[in-house]
Amino acid sequence: MPELIPLHADQAPAVLAFELANRAYFAAAVTDRGDDYFDRFADGYDALLAEQEAGVCAFYVLVAEDGEVLGRFNLYDLEDGTARLGYRVAERVAGRGVATATVRELCRTASVTHGLRTLRAAASHDNAASQKVLAKAEFVPVGPAAPADLGGRPGTWYQRILRPRANG
After folding, report:
1. How many Å apart are CA 112 and CA 92, to the nearest integer?
2. What's the pTM?
3. What DSSP designation does 153 have?
4. How far is CA 1 from each of CA 5, 155, 156, rounded to the nearest angstrom?
5. Under 8 Å CB-to-CB from 109, ≥6 apart: which residues?
6. Which 8-state DSSP code applies to residue 30?
7. What pLDDT, on a 0 to 100 scale, did the predictor assign at position 1?
8. How far apart are alpha carbons 131 and 117 in whole angstroms?
């Protein structure tokens, strides 16, 4: 059973392998990261870890039992009880409910672990799969997302109000 775990330094090779194996698949729905991303992967990965350490962002990976990364699920700009959600899953597990189940789990984690009350996510108009994931995970459309928010593609912002974390 896949497990959602915080990003850590030892996962860099598995994350890079995930990104490379799924590059063309991702580029069909979201803007391609570009060759520079892969050429400078180690520097970018270290920057993510530093942002996570500073509490600005929280990065997670969905990992199979064999250590293969099946997805990335990220909380960006944690501030005043809110954050932006971003995610991507491997092509080989797409369409099986993996993204929806993991987004739901991350919503619980966002509330309990990070004390967040609201999550926002943007999906482009041509990314029907992401729109379905967000709807099934109880996100509601709240307004247009500018192309600048989505790598040049127009879309919609979605929002979910999280249940308050339990005391103690």
Report:
1. 30
2. 0.92
3. -
4. 13, 33, 32
5. 4, 60
6. S
7. 84
8. 21
Helix (H) or strand (E) holding 42: helix 41-54
pLDDT along the chain (168 residues), means of 10: 95 96 87 86 96 97 96 96 96 95 97 96 92 97 92 92 67
SS3 152: coil
Strand order across the beta sheet in which 82-89 lies: 3-6, 58-63, 69-79, 82-89, 118-124, 155-161, 140-145
The 3-state DSSP class for residue 39 equals helix
Structure letter (DSSP) for residue 62? E
Is residue 2 within 8 A of residue 70, CB to CB? The reply is yes
Q: Are strands 155-161 and 82-89 parallel, antiparallel or unpaired?
A: unpaired
By CB atoms closer than 10 A (0-12, 13-18, 19+), residue 136 is middle
